[in-house]
Each structure stands twice: as structure tokens, then as C-alpha cells.
């Protein structure tokens, strides 16, 4: 039986719902959001994914948002939102749990299938990049150093104009 979507509010850089059985179930099952001060807080990426999958109904004030309105609001906080969302959606659709990796200077932390945050560490840090963007050797080296110092594998997610994603896993090798 399809449950009604949970009412959520877009509030700056995220989406918030009340703590209720449905939001708890979504968290327990797939680790969407985080419980803070009695409410579930979702990133904009999580919010859009849940919105598209009819788990959330998102409001701005009292106005129910359409998808394009949600995206317009999200882009005000993240100029790379579209590219990051394509990667987020692709990985989530493949069954991975994804969390932000801002403290690592990356886009995402990705947990191996079957692993939930708190049970073990993320396997990868991911940088989402559009194929038209340039990346210097200095930038590439910095991303590689971040992954090495955090003991995570580096995954570069390259999004093309057709919104397909190609993943490159980069690792250190000693000759």
C-alpha cells in the first residue's frame, strides 16, 4: 500500500521533516537524513531524491513546490547541484548509501553495498565533475591526497551531456 508523502519544508541548504514513523522508517531502511533536535534533516540532494520517489512533499512556506521550483531553490545554494544530483541519483539507484563529504573536501562519501554509516567507514570519496570542466594536475593530485589521507578510494564521477555517469577509481600504486 502506497503511503502518503511526508510533508517536508525546504529551509535554506536542506529539507526538514518532523520525526514520525515514516521518516524513521526511511532512515532505518536506507539512512536518508539525520535526526537533529527532534526533526529529520535531509540534504538538498536527499530531499530531491525522496521528492522524485514520492516519499516527500516539499513546501516553501505554505506553497507546495514543483520539481523545477525545488531545483531552482537548490541551485541558489549549490551551483554544481545538477551535476552532483545526477551522480547522487545514479549511485542511490544502484543501492549505495551516500552522505556528504564536505569535511573531506569532496562531494560524497559512499558506503559499500550493505554497509550503513556507523557500521563501518565509507569505501569511497567521490568528486562529481561535468565532462566539459577542466581539472589541472594540481587539482587531481589534491583530490588523490585527500582520498589517501582519509584511507578511502577515490572515485571520479564524470557526467556527460546526456547525463550518463562514468566512474573512474583512482588508487596509489608503489612500483
What does this 3D model show about the protein?
The structure is a single chain. This protein is an alpha+beta fold and 175 residues long. The protein has two domains: 6-77, tRNA intron endonuclease, N-terminal domain (MutS, DNA mismatch repair protein, domain I, 3-Layer(aba) Sandwich); 86-170, 3-Layer(aba) Sandwich (Trna Endonuclease, Chain: A, domain 1), CATH 3.40.1350.10. The chain is 32% helix and 30% strand. The chain contains five helices and eleven strands, in the order ββαββαββααβββαββ. It has helices at residues 21-30, 44-52, 67-77, 81-93, 137-149, and strands at 6-10, 14-18, 34-36, 39-43, 56-60, 63-64, 97-100, 108-111, 124-130, 153-159, 165-170. The chain has a six-stranded mixed β-sheet with strand order 3-4-2-1-5-6, covered by helices on one side. The chain has a five-stranded mixed β-sheet with strand order 7-8-9-10-11. β5 and β6 (63-64) form a beta hairpin. α2 (44-52) runs antiparallel to α3 and α2 (44-52) packs across α4 (81-93). The N and C termini lie far apart (57 Å).
Distance between the termini: 57 Å
Top CATH class of the largest domain? Alpha Beta
* Overall 3D shape: globular
Quote the average pLDDT: 91
Q: What integer value in Å does the Rg equal? A: 17 Å
Strand count, sense and barrel status of the largest sheet are: 6 strands, mixed
Q: Quote the beta fraction.
A: 25-35%
Q: Summarize the amount of helix as a percent range.
A: 25-40%
Structural class: alpha+beta
What sequence of helices (H) and strands (E) makes up the elements?
EEHEEHEEHHEEEHEE
Do you know the CATH topology of the largest domain? Trna Endonuclease, Chain: A, domain 1
Treating each run of at least 4 consecutive H or I residues as one helix, how many helices?
A: 5
The CATH architecture of the largest domain is 3-Layer(aba) Sandwich
Q: Tell me the total number of β-strands.
A: 11
Poorly predicted ranges: none
Amino acid at each position: 500500500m502506497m503511503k502518503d508523502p511526508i510533508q517536508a519544508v525546504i529551509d535554506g541548504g536542506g529539507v526538514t521533516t518532523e520525526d514520525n514513523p515514516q521518516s524513521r522508517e526511511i532512515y532505518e531502511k536506507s539512512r536518508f537524513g539525520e535526526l537533529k533536535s527532534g526533526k529529520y534533516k535531509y540534504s538538498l540532494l536527499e530531499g530531491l531524491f525522496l521528492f522524485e520517489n514520492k516519499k516527500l512533499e516539499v513546501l516553501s512556506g505554505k506553497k507546495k513546490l514543483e520539481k523545477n521550483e525545488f531545483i531552482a531553490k537548490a541551485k541558489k545554494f549549490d551551483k554544481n547541484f545538477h551535476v552532483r544530483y545526477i551522480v547522487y541519483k545514479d549511485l542511490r539507484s544502484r543501492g549505495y548509501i551516500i552522505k556528504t563529504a564536505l569535511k573531506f573536501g569532496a562531494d560524497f562519501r559512499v558506503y559499500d553495498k550493505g554497509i550503513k554509516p556507523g557500521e563501518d567507514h565509507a569505501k569511497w570519496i567521490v568528486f562529481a565533475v561535468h565532462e566539459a570542466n577542466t581539472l589541472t594536475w594540481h587539482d587531481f593530485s589534491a583530490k588523490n591526497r585527500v582520498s589517501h589521507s582519509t584511507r578511502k578510494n577515490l572515485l571520479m564521477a564524470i557526467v556527460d551531456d546526456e547525463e550518463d555517469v562514468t566512474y573512474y577509481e583512482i588508487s596509489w600504486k608503489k612500483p
